[in-house]
Amino acid sequence: MSGRYIPIELKIKILKRANERCEYCQSWMRNAIHTFHIDHVIPLDKEGETEFENLALSCSGCNSAKSTKIAAKDPVSKDMVSLFHPRQQKWEDHFVWSEDFIEMIGLTAVGRATIIHLRLNRIGLKNMRRLTTLAGEHPPID
User: Fold this and answer.
1) DSSP symbol at 95
2) Contacts by 73-77 with C-beta closer than 8 Å and gap 24+?
3) Which of the residues 50, 79, 107, 133 could staple to 138 if both were Cys, CB 3.0 to 4.6 A apart?
4) Span 105-127, pLDDT tens digits
5) CA proximity to 129, closest of 90, 84, 93, 98
């Protein structure tokens, strides 16, 4: 399959695989005030395809910040590294929650670069994490 059109059956499979959470910031779709998107992890303009293994559920904020990028600078090493790839990497290998579960902390260069580039600790996310922590919905448990 090529192009941006994603059939409804494929969208449903992606929603289920992601457990209706952004695969980058882990926000719940049900708590979002903005639309969620299907992200091409490897963008079409970088030879990515519209296929299950290249698609990820993404909140509007993460999708907008990621855009067509696949790499960013690690703030520690200053090296360019790949952004987190939810189909090829495990979230818990690259990220951990702060003690109060409000901020994401990067464990690796990939994690750190992704947090900075996708703004995974933006104020709106931190506020939502505070509220959902109080409601017993955060951090997400799979």
Assistant:
1) E
2) 73/113, 73/116, 74/109, 74/110, 74/112, 74/113, 75/112, 75/113, 75/116, 76/109, 76/112, 77/109
3) 133
4) 999 999 999 999 999 999 999 99
5) 98
- DSSP state letter for 105: E
User: Using one digit for the tens of pLDDT, what is the confidence trace for 10-32?
Assistant: 999 999 999 999 999 999 999 88
Identify the bridge partners of residue 55 per DSSP, sorted by sequence position.
Answer: 40
In angstroms, the CA 9 to CA 14 distance is 9
DSSP letter string, 4-73: S---HHHHHHHHHHTTTB-TTT--BGGG-SS-EEEEESS-GGGT--SSGGGEEEEEHHHHHHHTT--EEE
Residue that the structure tokens 């293994």 belong to: 53
What residues are paired with 95 via a beta bridge? 106
Sign of CA dihedral 22, 132, 114, 117: positive
pTM: 0.93
